[in-house]
Amino acid sequence: xxxxxxxxxxxxxxxxxxxxxxxxxxxxxxxxxxxxxxxxxxxxxxxxxxxxxxxxxxxxxxxxxxxxxxxxxxxxxxxxxxxxxxxxxxxxxxxxxxxxxxxxxxxxxxxxxxxxxxxxxxxxxxxxxxxxxxxxxxxxxxxxxxxxxxxxxxxxxxxxxxxxxxxxxxxxxxxxxxxxxxxxxxxxxxxxxxxxxxxxxxxxxxxxxxxxxxxxxxxxxxxxxxxxxxxxxxxxxxxxxxxxxxxxxxxxxxxxxxxxxxxxxxxxxxxxxxxxxxxxxxxxxxxxxxxxxxxxxxxxxxxxxxxxxxx
Length: 311
Description:
Layout: H1 3-14, H2 20-27, H3 31-43, E1 47-54, E2 61-70, H4 76-83, E3 89-94, E4 100-106, H5 109-120, E5 125-136, H6 147-156, H7 164-171, H8 175-187, E6 191-197, E7 205-213, H9 220-230, E8 235-240, E9 246-253, H10 258-267, E10 272-275, E11 278-279, H11 289-300
Antiparallel strand pairs: 1-6, 2-4, 2-5, 3-4, 7-9, 7-10, 7-11, 8-9
């Protein structure tokens, strides 16, 4: 994966309904070249699925990173089967050293407590550390969504890349109405069009690097800039704990021998107190809560499963 592939992936994560022509202008490649790269990323399994989710301003919830420490005896197939359908869980990443890295989104503390208890009670689990990384406070009401918008979304939840004319045919709306409503949905961030991605394949490993820092000597922005500068291809994103001075950097490493160098150099950075390296070797990506809540909104309006006006 090179710089162009990464930029394409980031653009698709931000808005997967962008046209090839639009992507080409942003990235500086031709539309056929963009398509070829997207096809290859899909073929190797990096792009797993196109998705649409409810915009964060319609959600009151928290996100957390959960580090599960085990005694090495956890049956990962059973663990995955147990938690991949949990409403709060949207990433399960087994770690080579025996830990399990999870990401969760939940609407109440009881939901988090119940999830934590279920994980703690699982055979072989020794400890569960929860680190809240985002807090979302709803700014808007779900009644903002008009009936035409919901009809459009009922088709796009199943296939987020569905062409405008096909959406119009299935919903009975005009093509112009579909285009205008889609523009509003994207511009106002009422929904988010993205991708589920799987960084594994072709020798790539996911690395989760918890970094503890002294807030009097450095900041998350400084640490992120360091990663972007020194590992521009490998570094993907970071999440910062709300309650601790702890940043979780996520990287895709094709050469894990670089990790010793990365750790040594990062520890030399002003204000870094400790760095831990967690090497993942597979991942499971269930639906996010924001996707589930969009389905619930459509269901409440009798638009899920989607209807097709042509049938």
